[in-house]
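Interim report, section 4.2 (structural modelling).
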Amino acid sequence: DAKTTQPPSMDCAEGRAANLPCNHSTISGNEYVYWYRQIHSQGPQYIIHGLKNNETNEMASLIITEDRKSSTLILPHATLRDTAVYYCIVGMDSSYKLIFGSGTRLLVRP
Amino acid sequence: DGGITQSPKYLFRKEGQNVTLSCEQNLNHDAMYWYRQDPGQGLRLIYYSQIVNDFQKGDIAEGYSVSREKKESFPLTVTSAQKNPTAFYLCASSTIGTANTGELFFGEGSRLTVL
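Predicted structure of the assembly:
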Protein backbone atom coordinates (compact mmCIF):
# COMPACT_ATOMS: atom_id res chain seq x y z
CA ASP A 1 0.00 0.00 0.00
CA ALA A 2 1.16 3.51 -0.78
CA LYS A 3 2.46 5.36 2.24
CA THR A 4 1.43 8.74 0.91
CA THR A 5 -1.81 10.62 0.27
CA GLN A 6 -2.13 13.11 -2.58
CA PRO A 7 -5.09 14.93 -4.11
CA PRO A 8 -6.14 13.22 -7.34
CA SER A 9 -6.03 16.37 -9.43
CA MET A 10 -5.06 20.04 -9.39
CA ASP A 11 -4.74 22.83 -11.85
CA CYS A 12 -2.90 26.11 -12.07
CA ALA A 13 -2.38 28.92 -14.55
CA GLU A 14 0.69 29.03 -16.72
CA GLY A 15 3.39 31.19 -15.17
CA ARG A 16 2.05 30.83 -11.66
CA ALA A 17 3.47 28.63 -8.94
CA ALA A 18 2.09 25.12 -8.62
CA ASN A 19 2.03 23.81 -5.06
CA LEU A 20 1.44 20.07 -4.82
CA PRO A 21 0.78 18.71 -1.31
CA CYS A 22 1.54 15.27 0.03
CA ASN A 23 0.75 13.65 3.37
CA HIS A 24 3.06 10.98 4.73
CA SER A 25 2.10 10.76 8.39
CA THR A 26 3.66 7.31 8.92
CA ILE A 27 7.09 8.21 7.53
CA SER A 28 9.94 6.76 9.56
CA GLY A 29 13.08 8.60 10.58
CA ASN A 30 15.32 7.18 7.88
CA GLU A 31 12.89 7.50 4.98
CA TYR A 32 13.28 10.09 2.30
CA VAL A 33 10.53 11.91 0.44
CA TYR A 34 10.83 11.57 -3.35
CA TRP A 35 8.93 13.29 -6.10
CA TYR A 36 8.61 11.98 -9.63
CA ARG A 37 6.44 13.03 -12.51
CA GLN A 38 5.08 11.14 -15.47
CA ILE A 39 4.08 12.78 -18.70
CA HIS A 40 1.50 10.79 -20.60
CA SER A 41 2.79 7.47 -21.98
CA GLN A 42 6.36 8.08 -20.88
CA GLY A 43 8.51 6.71 -18.07
CA PRO A 44 8.46 8.63 -14.78
CA GLN A 45 11.09 11.32 -14.31
CA TYR A 46 12.85 12.04 -11.04
CA ILE A 47 12.31 15.59 -9.76
CA ILE A 48 13.72 15.97 -6.26
CA HIS A 49 14.06 14.28 -2.90
CA GLY A 50 14.75 15.26 0.70
CA LEU A 51 15.05 13.95 4.23
CA LYS A 52 14.49 16.81 6.66
CA ASN A 53 15.63 20.06 5.12
CA ASN A 54 13.99 21.92 2.31
CA GLU A 55 15.58 21.25 -1.05
CA THR A 56 15.76 23.16 -4.31
CA ASN A 57 17.06 22.26 -7.72
CA GLU A 58 16.60 23.54 -11.24
CA MET A 59 13.21 21.88 -11.55
CA ALA A 60 11.46 22.47 -8.24
CA SER A 61 11.56 23.12 -4.51
CA LEU A 62 10.61 20.64 -1.83
CA ILE A 63 9.27 21.91 1.48
CA ILE A 64 9.08 19.32 4.28
CA THR A 65 7.27 20.18 7.50
CA GLU A 66 9.21 20.07 10.73
CA ASP A 67 7.38 16.93 11.90
CA ARG A 68 8.00 15.41 8.43
CA LYS A 69 4.40 14.27 8.17
CA SER A 70 3.74 16.26 5.03
CA SER A 71 5.54 18.01 2.21
CA THR A 72 4.87 20.32 -0.71
CA LEU A 73 6.43 20.28 -4.13
CA ILE A 74 6.64 23.74 -5.65
CA LEU A 75 7.02 24.41 -9.35
CA PRO A 76 7.78 28.12 -9.19
CA HIS A 77 6.67 29.12 -12.70
CA ALA A 78 4.53 26.37 -14.18
CA THR A 79 4.56 25.90 -17.94
CA LEU A 80 2.27 23.85 -20.17
CA ARG A 81 4.99 21.20 -20.33
CA ASP A 82 4.61 20.67 -16.58
CA THR A 83 1.21 19.05 -17.16
CA ALA A 84 1.76 15.54 -15.82
CA VAL A 85 1.00 13.12 -13.00
CA TYR A 86 3.14 13.88 -9.96
CA TYR A 87 4.01 11.10 -7.54
CA CYS A 88 5.07 11.62 -3.95
CA ILE A 89 6.88 8.58 -2.54
CA VAL A 90 8.61 7.74 0.70
CA GLY A 91 11.41 5.22 0.99
CA MET A 92 14.80 4.55 2.45
CA ASP A 93 18.02 5.57 0.76
CA SER A 94 18.69 2.06 -0.39
CA SER A 95 15.07 1.10 -0.89
CA TYR A 96 14.37 -1.27 -3.69
CA LYS A 97 10.62 -1.01 -3.43
CA LEU A 98 9.54 2.55 -3.96
CA ILE A 99 5.76 2.35 -4.08
CA PHE A 100 4.04 4.64 -6.55
CA GLY A 101 0.47 5.52 -5.63
CA SER A 102 -1.98 7.15 -8.01
CA GLY A 103 -0.34 10.58 -7.78
CA THR A 104 -1.74 14.04 -8.51
CA ARG A 105 -2.72 14.90 -12.05
CA LEU A 106 -1.60 18.51 -12.57
CA LEU A 107 -3.12 20.46 -15.42
CA VAL A 108 -1.41 23.73 -16.31
CA ARG A 109 -3.88 26.06 -18.03
CA PRO A 110 -2.82 28.58 -20.69
CA ASP B 1 24.24 8.93 -24.07
CA GLY B 2 23.61 6.83 -20.96
CA GLY B 3 20.17 5.54 -20.32
CA ILE B 4 17.69 2.71 -20.35
CA THR B 5 16.35 1.25 -23.56
CA GLN B 6 13.17 -0.78 -23.67
CA SER B 7 11.93 -2.66 -26.68
CA PRO B 8 9.61 -3.06 -28.35
CA LYS B 9 7.66 0.12 -27.69
CA TYR B 10 4.41 -1.50 -28.78
CA LEU B 11 3.63 -5.21 -28.86
CA PHE B 12 0.56 -7.21 -29.71
CA ARG B 13 0.12 -10.79 -28.66
CA LYS B 14 -2.50 -13.46 -28.95
CA GLU B 15 -3.86 -15.10 -25.85
CA GLY B 16 -1.80 -18.09 -24.77
CA GLN B 17 1.47 -16.77 -26.14
CA ASN B 18 4.50 -15.88 -24.09
CA VAL B 19 6.22 -12.60 -24.90
CA THR B 20 9.56 -11.17 -23.75
CA LEU B 21 10.18 -7.48 -23.19
CA SER B 22 13.75 -6.24 -23.40
CA CYS B 23 15.42 -3.80 -21.02
CA GLU B 24 19.04 -2.70 -21.43
CA GLN B 25 20.92 -0.05 -19.45
CA ASN B 26 24.38 1.45 -19.93
CA LEU B 27 24.43 3.38 -16.67
CA ASN B 28 26.45 0.73 -14.86
CA HIS B 29 23.67 0.43 -12.31
CA ASP B 30 23.51 -2.63 -10.09
CA ALA B 31 19.76 -2.67 -9.49
CA MET B 32 17.05 -3.08 -12.10
CA TYR B 33 13.27 -3.19 -11.76
CA TRP B 34 10.13 -3.99 -13.70
CA TYR B 35 6.88 -2.14 -13.04
CA ARG B 36 3.42 -2.55 -14.50
CA GLN B 37 1.03 0.36 -14.99
CA ASP B 38 -2.67 0.06 -15.80
CA PRO B 39 -4.68 3.02 -17.15
CA GLY B 40 -5.14 5.76 -14.55
CA GLN B 41 -3.20 3.80 -11.95
CA GLY B 42 0.17 4.08 -10.29
CA LEU B 43 3.10 1.73 -10.85
CA ARG B 44 3.20 -1.74 -9.33
CA LEU B 45 6.46 -3.62 -8.84
CA ILE B 46 6.75 -6.96 -10.65
CA TYR B 47 10.36 -8.04 -10.09
CA TYR B 48 13.62 -6.44 -9.09
CA SER B 49 17.26 -7.44 -9.15
CA GLN B 50 20.11 -6.05 -7.09
CA ILE B 51 22.89 -8.14 -8.58
CA VAL B 52 23.62 -10.42 -11.51
CA ASN B 53 22.05 -13.88 -11.27
CA ASP B 54 19.75 -12.83 -8.45
CA PHE B 55 16.26 -11.33 -8.44
CA GLN B 56 13.31 -10.95 -6.10
CA LYS B 57 9.56 -10.99 -6.58
CA GLY B 58 7.71 -7.74 -6.23
CA ASP B 59 4.05 -7.29 -5.41
CA ILE B 60 2.58 -8.79 -8.60
CA ALA B 61 5.07 -11.42 -9.83
CA GLU B 62 2.54 -14.13 -10.72
CA GLY B 63 2.53 -14.88 -14.43
CA TYR B 64 5.86 -13.17 -15.05
CA SER B 65 9.47 -14.34 -15.14
CA VAL B 66 12.81 -12.55 -15.38
CA SER B 67 16.49 -13.28 -15.74
CA ARG B 68 19.61 -11.29 -14.90
CA GLU B 69 22.51 -12.95 -16.70
CA LYS B 70 24.28 -9.66 -17.40
CA LYS B 71 24.48 -6.48 -15.37
CA GLU B 72 23.11 -4.37 -18.19
CA SER B 73 20.18 -6.57 -19.15
CA PHE B 74 16.95 -7.51 -17.33
CA PRO B 75 14.39 -9.06 -19.71
CA LEU B 76 10.81 -9.68 -18.59
CA THR B 77 8.74 -12.57 -19.93
CA VAL B 78 4.99 -12.27 -19.73
CA THR B 79 3.73 -15.83 -19.70
CA SER B 80 0.40 -17.25 -20.72
CA ALA B 81 -0.31 -17.69 -17.00
CA GLN B 82 -0.70 -13.94 -16.59
CA LYS B 83 -4.47 -13.46 -16.54
CA ASN B 84 -4.64 -9.86 -17.68
CA PRO B 85 -1.35 -8.93 -19.37
CA THR B 86 -2.52 -5.89 -21.33
CA ALA B 87 -0.67 -2.99 -19.67
CA PHE B 88 2.16 -0.50 -19.90
CA TYR B 89 5.44 -2.01 -18.67
CA LEU B 90 8.26 0.12 -17.32
CA CYS B 91 11.84 -0.87 -16.62
CA ALA B 92 14.03 1.12 -14.24
CA SER B 93 17.51 1.01 -12.76
CA SER B 94 19.37 2.54 -9.85
CA THR B 95 22.60 2.48 -7.91
CA ILE B 96 22.62 0.69 -4.57
CA GLY B 97 24.42 0.84 -1.26
CA THR B 98 26.41 3.92 -0.32
CA ALA B 99 26.20 5.22 -3.87
CA ASN B 100 22.43 5.09 -3.90
CA THR B 101 20.53 8.34 -4.06
CA GLY B 102 17.18 6.64 -4.26
CA GLU B 103 16.68 7.92 -7.77
CA LEU B 104 15.19 5.52 -10.26
CA PHE B 105 15.99 5.96 -13.93
CA PHE B 106 13.14 4.79 -16.15
CA GLY B 107 12.92 3.63 -19.72
CA GLU B 108 10.22 4.86 -22.08
CA GLY B 109 8.06 1.81 -21.54
CA SER B 110 6.59 -1.03 -23.57
CA ARG B 111 2.88 -1.16 -24.22
CA LEU B 112 1.58 -4.72 -24.48
CA THR B 113 -1.85 -5.48 -25.88
CA VAL B 114 -3.31 -8.97 -25.83
CA LEU B 115 -5.81 -9.57 -28.60
